[in-house]
Amino acid sequence: MKVSVVICTYSMDMYEHFEEAVKSILEQTYDDVELVLVSDGNEAVYQRMVADYGDRSDTIVSRTEKNVGISAARNHGIE
Question: In 3-state terms, what secondary structure has residue 63?
Fold first, then answer.
């Protein structure tokens, strides 16, 4: 991939904004993009991410991380 976009989330309350960000990235015309979704320790959020985006495995990678904070979650996504 030439471009990797990492989006992290923890709260289901913010999931609506998370979905807007994912949709915006998926609507881009650039083809060589990988989207890495990281749940920062919230199993409900991770399960929803997999349910909503798991069928797009060629473009989207979903990860879960124990609740270690946003910086560590971003670093996990970058790895």
Answer: strand
